[in-house]
Specification:
The complex is a heterodimer of chains A (231) and B (297). In chain A, 32% of the residues lie in helices and 26% in strands. Chain A has a domain of 66 residues. By secondary structure, chain A is α/β, with parallel strands linked by helices. By secondary structure, chain B is of the alpha+beta class. Chain B folds into two domains: 177 residues, no CATH class; 97 residues, Alpha-Beta Plaits (2-Layer Sandwich), CATH 3.30.70.3040. The longest helix of chain B is centred in the middle third of the chain and has 42 residues. The radius of gyration of chain B is 30 Å and the shape is elongated. In chain B, 29% of the residues are buried. Classes of the chains: A alpha/beta (231), B alpha+beta (297). At the A-B interface, helix 2 and helix 3 of A face helix 7 of B.
């Protein structure tokens, strides 16, 4: 479903984001991307979202070469990939309902479809009662749940979560992980970048460990290995 | 623009306009100020044109008719002149009428007896008095009239005509150049203000991009918002200029009633069309222009 084929990313300031990285993620997998800051986790996410182009190699999603998509095709790629950020990135002047509905609106969904689907996903993340609240009226965990609801409202085949628990306390972080696990069990592929060894070690999912733009290890049911020797 | 989304675009634009009230207010004030300046030069230009036309129509050419010409020949000459190109109006002035006109120049109320009582009109001639449509053709017209039969002489104030023409050309060109310069400056001021407003919502635009919004879907509400800013700024500027212009014209007329200024009621429509039109186009274009960089995500 997702393939990185010999992908190298060198930024304008000559910083190497990824160095000849190759891996494949199958449909329905739950994959952790782990590593220090600057290891290459964000580069993988940006390349997958077509926010950046690889310097070399190809990024393939659902049979399409992402780096060869035209500008007009990129929004349609992003509609099949839900994204959740560490800082939630909700629209502050829209209510919880409107934030989630907005993701459907941009896909040109009808009002009827929006009215049916938004309450469903809000209920799935346990926020039905907060539909009329604005983001600043919610806790960090609730805001992240809104972000997850927004990311899954269009039934994407992949959900990318970039440090989704980074700003949350342990208890809330595990609530979020529970929601992500449930989504994964419904068949959605999850790719989650994280620094949290506790979460990675507890979940026992596939772990891709990155360091200085290269893959140190790629393990099924892996754990977060701190102080992995560099190649 | 996708028809099914028009409603959403307008709703989104108006809600953004009010939600970002401070920036919207700043944009409207900047647009209004820039358009007032532009409108001011428009008013100056229009009035220069009006005054120069007035000066041109006040500048008469007098055709002196030979006394030897019969009444019919004089009438024929008058009719011929009236139909000549560049002639705006022509009137026949007999010797007697010319004398009366001459007398009317003086204030005779202080005199017991008319000092011109014994004056005969013999020293005067019959004339055709002409005003021109366009003084720049005065020399050509004078030459043509001079060649007509029974014309003794054509009196025209060549220097005055020349001075009026030069003055009028300088003023009109000056106000046109100033207006073009101001349009250029107004464009930069307005687009920079709108750029600031767009920049303040950079994060919002990025979020829209991440969740799969097309450029068109993001752009239209911003363009409509820019149109709102231009429309409101243009309307306020038109109203303030109209109101100020009416006051200024009546004040000047009270103290110095020698020129006919362009009528406020006649001028309001072209003024409003210019300011609102310019405001709307610049507002829309500036929004589109400012968004470009932010859409590359």
């Amino acid at each position: 479903m997702i393939s990185f084929k010999n992908v190298t990313k060198i930024y304008d300031n000559n910083v190497v984001g990824l160095d000849n990285v190759s891996f494949t993620i199958q449909k329905g997998e739950f994959v952790f991307l782990v590593g220090q800051s600057g290891a290459g986790k964000s580069s993988i996410i940006k390349l997958l979202m077509a926010e950046e182009l690889p310097t070399e190699g190809d990024v393939i999603f659902d049979g399409k070469i992402v780096n060869k998509l035209s500008r007009k095709e990129i929004p349609y790629l992003r509609r099949s990939i839900g994204v959740v950020f560490q800082d939630f990135r909700l629209l502050p002047k829209k209510t919880v309902y409107e934030n989630v509905a907005y993701a459907m609106l941009v896909t040109e969904a009808t009002k009827r479809q929006i009215r049916r689907q938004v309450p469903n996903v809000l209920s799935m993340v346990g926020l039905s009662r907060k539909a009329r609240c604005y983001p600043n009226q919610l806790s960090g965990g609730e805001q992240q749940r809104v972000a997850i609801a927004r990311a899954i409202v269009n039934n994407p085949s992949v959900l990318i979560a970039d440090e989704p628990t980074g700003n949350l306390d342990n208890e809330t972080a595990y609530e979020i992980m529970k929601i992500l696990d449930d989504i994964n069990k419904r068949g959605t592929t999850i790719i989650m970048a994280t620094h949290s060894d506790r979460i990675v070690n507890d979940m026992r999912k596939r772990v891709i460990h990155l360091e200085n733009g290269i893959i140190l290890s790629d393990e099924e049911k892996g754990v977060y290995r701190v102080g992995y020797p560099a190649y | 623009m996708a028809i099914r989304h028009i409603n959403y675009y307008f709703k989104e634009a108006s809600s953004n306009f009010f939600l970002n009230g401070l920036m919207s207010g700043a944009s409207v004030i900047t647009v209004t100020a820039a358009l007032i300046l532009l409108g001011l030069f428009f008013l100056i230009g229009v009035n220069f044109k009006e005054i120069s036309q007035q000066l041109q129509s006040d500048c008469e050419i007098r055709v002196v008719i030979d006394d030897a010409a019969s009444a019919n020949e004089q009438r024929a000459l008058y009719e011929k002149i009236k139909k000549m190109p560049y002639v705006k109006s022509a009137s026949y002035e007999s010797k007697e009428q010319a004398l009366e006109n001459f007398k009317s120049i003086f204030d005779l109320s202080e005199y017991e007896n008319d000092p011109f009582e014994d004056m005969e009109s013999d020293f005067l001639r019959n004339y055709v008095v002409i005003t021109m449509k366009d003084l720049s053709h005065a020399e050509e017209l004078v030459n043509d009239i001079s060649k007509l039969p029974h014309v003794l002489k054509v009196i025209n104030r060549k220097d005055t005509i020349q001075a009026i023409m030069t003055f009028s050309t300088i003023l009109q060109n000056g106000s046109l150049i100033s207006m073009l310069g101001l349009m250029f400056i107004a464009f930069f001021i307005i687009s920079n203000t709108i750029k600031l407003s767009v920049h303040a919502r950079e994060e919002e635009i990025h979020i829209m991009k991440y969740i799969g919004a097309t450029d068109r879907f993001i752009r239209w509400p911003f363009i409509i918002e820019g149109v709102f800013v231009g429309l409101i700024g243009g309307a306020i500027a038109s109203f303030l200029l109209y109101w100020g212009y009416m006051g200024a014209v009546s004040a000047v007329k009270r103290t110095l009633d020698i020129f006919n200024f362009a009528s406020p009621n006649k001028i309001i429509l072209p003024l409003a069309l210019l300011l609102v039109g310019f405001g709307v186009v610049i507002g829309a274009y500036a929004s589109m222009f400012s968004l470009r960089r932010h859409l590359r995500v």
